[in-house]
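ok trying this again, last paste got cut off
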Amino acid sequence: MVEAISSNSAPQAIGPYSQAVRAGNFIFCSGQLGLDRTSGKLVSDDAAVQAEKCLKNLEAVLNAAGSSLRNIVKTTIFLTNLQDFEKVNAAYGGFFGETKPARSTVQVAALPRGAKVEIEAIAINGM
């Protein structure tokens, strides 16, 4: 069974997709940008600030699914400039405890709305 997950505490999807989908014991979160949920605009031009907002948006979606950041098992970070890698790492590290999720980081040519960072996640069910 597949169930769409939606949170009013995170920006709504900007295309024809769900914020997240629950499939079995997993929650697959679509990539989140550093968007403010009410204005739909980026919170900052700084990659680290955008990364923090991406993770807060992911947290809101996971909370709506009955899960949390600590249940993330894998993330993918998309950066438009790998020179932002270190400062995004610093922001990212503060969101996870001792056991960090598996992760990939890739540079992409561009992201929607001119964002510098997008983060997607896979989590397990439960708080």
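PB: full thing came through this time. The helical segments are 47-64, 85-93.
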